[in-house]
């Protein structure tokens, strides 16, 4: 009888341990036949973060393309490419100046880098066949990286940044209102019910992402700050860089409405630090 009581106490003590964020060794990067997503929240890109991108993508041995079409600035390719040249990688190609034959090898890339700018502009610039080529490259083992606008397009449901009720663009939403947020279709590389927001803490985009998960209560919102990234492999996301990644989940699965404003109960907030790891699944 005493043995049974002791066994019960031991099992109970294990079951009551609080769940902790998993600290990982940033040099311990697993490899598999399927690719990964390196999603950068915008801003400056610290050296150790780009070092990690180079490592996970195996770009030193493979093909690399930079897609600068989100930006109207002619220097977008130059600055995106500079971070690779500084690491001895001189074969990243500017996708916009390639021949038709060269563009056909997009699906065979080891790394595809989506530069920042306007996410709608990027999606409009990509043909259906080019979107398909990016997905094929990802499924075959490529890393798809994107910063700022290039991060936003990773989702199925993409935040455009525009508002229906307040057409003058603001860096964030000043309110949490029903039927205000404007979504568009992204590249759909992430799981279906994940929404990305970028420049998150620096530009205080909490209202915008909260609006998104209230309008879409079965979705999980991931806000990535500047100089910060997540590396997504299967169902796991690892934080790289200098600042935080914040997630919102509407655990109630419902939203309340009153005179055009929205509310919800049991919204779970998590704040992840560099080198921490979390699951994408809800």
Summarize the model shown:
With 282 residues, this protein is of the alpha/beta class. The chain is built from eight helices and 17 strands.
Could you characterize the architecture of this molecule?
26% of the residues lie in helices and 28% in strands. The protein has 282 residues and is α/β, with parallel strands linked by helices. The chain has one domain: Class I glutamine amidotransferase (GATase) domain (Rossmann fold, 3-Layer(aba) Sandwich). The strands form 4 sheets. Strands 1-17-12-11-2-6-5-3-4 form a 9-stranded mixed sheet. Strand 11 (228-233) and strand 12 (236-241) form a beta hairpin. The longest helix has 14 residues, at 2-15. It starts with a helix and ends with a strand. The relative contact order is 0.16. Residues 1-33 have low confidence and may be disordered. Belongs to the peptidase S51 family. InterPro entries: Class_I_gatase-like, Peptidase_S51.
List keywords for this structure.
single chain, 282 residues, alpha/beta, Rossmann fold, 4-stranded mixed beta sheet, 8 helices, disordered N terminus, serine-type peptidase activity, hydrolase
- Strands side by side in the biggest sheet: 1-17-12-11-2-6-5-3-4
Per the principal axes of the C-alpha atoms, what is the gross shape? globular
Count the E strands. Answer: 17
CATH class: Alpha Beta
Q: What would you give as the CATH superfamily?
A: Class I glutamine amidotransferase (GATase) domain
The helix tally amounts to 8
How is the main sheet built?
9 strands, mixed
Cα radius of gyration in angstroms:
20 Å
How far apart are the first and last residues' alpha carbons, in Å? Answer: 41 Å
Question: What's the CATH architecture name?
Answer: 3-Layer(aba) Sandwich
Helix content: 25-40%
Query: Could you say what the CATH topology is called?
Result: Rossmann fold
**N-to-C SSE series?**
HEEHEHEHEHHEHEEEHEEEEEEEE
- Based on helices, strands and strand pairing, what is the structural class? alpha/beta
- Domain count: 1
Unreliable parts: 1-33
Q: What is the averaged pLDDT score? A: 88
Strand content is: 25-35%
Organism: Marivirga aurantiaca
Family: Belongs to the peptidase S51 family.
Pfam families: Peptidase_S51
Keywords: Hydrolase, Protease, Serine protease
């Amino acid at each position: 009888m005493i043995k049974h009581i002791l066994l019960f106490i031991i099992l109970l003590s294990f079951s009551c341990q609080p769940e902790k964020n998993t600290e990982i060794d940033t040099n311990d990067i697993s490899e598999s036949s399927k690719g990964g997503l390196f999603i950068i929240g915008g801003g400056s890109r610290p050296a150790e973060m780009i070092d990690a991108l180079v490592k996970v993508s195996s770009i030193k041995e493979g093909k690399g393309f930079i897609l600068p079409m989100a930006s109207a600035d002619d220097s977008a390719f130059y600055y995106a490419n500079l971070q690779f040249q500084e690491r001895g990688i001189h074969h990243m190609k500017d996708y916009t100046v390639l021949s038709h034959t060269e563009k056909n090898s997009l699906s065979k890339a080891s790394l595809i880098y989506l530069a920042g700018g306007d996410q709608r502009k990027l999606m409009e610039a990509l043909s259906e066949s080019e979107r398909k080529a990016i997905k094929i490259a990802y499924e075959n083992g490529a890393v798809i990286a994107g910063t700022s606008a290039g991060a936003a397009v990773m989702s199925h449901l993409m935040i455009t940044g525009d508002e229906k009720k307040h057409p003058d663009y603001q860096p964030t939403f000043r309110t949490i209102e029903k039927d205000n947020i404007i979504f568009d279709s992204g590249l759909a590389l992430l799981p279906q019910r994940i929404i990305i927001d970028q420049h998150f803490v620096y530009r205080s985009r909490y209202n915008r992402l909260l609006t998104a998960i209230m309008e879409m209560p079965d979705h999980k919102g991931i806000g990535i700050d500047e100089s910060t990234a997540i590396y997504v492999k299967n169902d796991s996301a690892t934080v790289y860089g200098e600042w935080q990644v914040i997630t919102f989940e509407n655990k109630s699965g419902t939203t309340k409405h009153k005179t055009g404003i929205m509310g919800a109960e049991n919204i779970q907030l998590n704040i992840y630090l560099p080198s921490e790891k979390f699951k994408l699944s809800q």
